[in-house]
Amino acid sequence: MTEPALDFSGRSALVTGAGSGIGAAVARWLDAHGIATLHLVDVNAEGMAALDLSCEVHRHVHDVSDPQFWGGFERAAGTLDHAVVNAGIALGGAPIAEQTFQHWRRVMAVNLDGAFLTLAAALRLMQANGGGSAVVTSSITAIKPVPGIGAYGVSKAGVAHMTRIAAAENAARGIRVNAVAPGGVDTAIWDSGEAFRKAVEDHGREGAIAAMGAGTPRGRFATADEIAGDIGYLLSDMAANVTGVVLNTDGGFSL
Ligand code: NAD
């Protein structure tokens, strides 16, 4: 039997970036914990189609940084209990002095503008609903300045602070807003980085992930399912007194 505080029966949730990695794992986690309705958003139609879920599912093949999508989404969804603001890109990167403005803007458009549009739409639906909870996917790079991925790190610091502000603005309305800040997680996001692609050429994908994980205190990267469990906890009634928190889920990387 599901622990009552982890039971999502009768509720609805929005998950962005649900076509792969952490977002797909969250969709599976919520489905396993009784969610009634899932609204999945991703530009990756195939990834969302591949998810085998037993709840009512609405798949939206859209770019989260498109403001027009969110107006239509609010009208179509009508009501919402939970949101996972998770879609994101990394795209490799470069030191600040060498970073192109085009790259900077693209990362901000998806990771920061997209997260703002998603969270704002979700908050309006939850406010009308009289309560709810949201979790935003930040990153440990929001706290630890990792050289060479400045646009990504700044975008993730932005969403961490947006989380705290939204939490302060909505606590009295019965809406909790938290974030997770994962360290390395074995997902497809790594495949967009040039340094990682070179490591894959030399060691294979599994070897490249293992080599990077070996350099962390835990000795390995997290799985997407592990991060989904952290997100599920923060979304759930088990975390009823937790809001405005950015939870480091990094296997000790930030220590
Ligand atoms: P992933 O690449 O497996 O999944 C990201 C998903 O977001 C993909 O399905 C992609 O199509 C989707 N997406 C990208 N841009 C989009 C857009 N404009 N509109 C809609 N969907 C879009 O990677 P992941 O690791 O599961 O990433 C999920 C989140 O976790 C991201 O925000 C990422 O920054 C964050 N994160 C990942 C790690 C890690 O090591 N994997 C660490 C910290 C934080």
UniProtKB/TrEMBL annotation:
Residues 11-193 form the Ketoreductase domain. This is Levodione reductase. InterPro entries: KR_dom, NAD(P)-bd_dom_sf, Sc_DH/Rdtase_CS, SDR_fam. The keyword RNA-binding does not apply. It comes from Tsuneonella dongtanensis. CDD domains: SDR_c. The lineage of its organism: Bacteria, Pseudomonadati, Pseudomonadota, Alphaproteobacteria, Sphingomonadales. SUPFAM superfamilies: NAD(P)-binding Rossmann-fold domains. One of its GO terms (molecular function) is oxidoreductase activity. Its EC number is 1.1.1.-. Belongs to the short-chain dehydrogenases/reductases (SDR) family. Pfam families: adh_short_C2. The keyword Kinase does not apply. It comes from the Bacteria. Keywords: Oxidoreductase.
